[in-house]
């Protein structure tokens, strides 16, 4: 569940609620093509097809989050089948190549119920916000499942991964968009702690984001004008 949050009328950040249907941490067998995030995100470049605005098929629809775990696993596997690194081990530096080889030997990946706070500025504490999110999950669970369940810090922890940060006071919205886009393009597969996302995406993607949004708005404008004339 993706939630865009506004802080003190000046700053946007995002909370991602992961695996809300799980009641504890689980470990599952890891197929060789499913690279854990801590290593997958170290690949030195992205394909050009992944560098633009979120594709139409990546639009997030906030539907019923309380899937049966079996159905969710099927959806998760379908989603991960498309994840392929665009660099082979032989093309990487020795350090990254070793990470790649070690990754292929991993047998388990971690799925952890948690709330990820992705903040490009870390403006202040968000403990109160996290508590509100836990209370929302409790109310949603009771409404959908007709049972009571406690979402406490021990069952739904909050984490603050190190993500790429803005270097000014005006780009929080742009970084928020990039976090969501990258989450779809290069999703976190292994939630074993710590989750390292410092190199999740290169800085030039954010620098181009405003230009891409402007071009998209102009493109839609011209399409609408063309449609009205016809």
UniProtKB/TrEMBL annotation:
GO biological process: protein desumoylation; proteolysis
Superkingdom of this protein's organism: Eukaryota
Signal peptide region: 1-18
Coiled coil regions in record: none
Keyword Protease: yes
Keywords linked to the UniProt accession: Hydrolase, Phosphoprotein, Protease, Signal, Ubl conjugation pathway
Domain Ubiquitin-like protease family profile: 1-183
Protein name: Ubiquitin-like protease family profile domain-containing protein
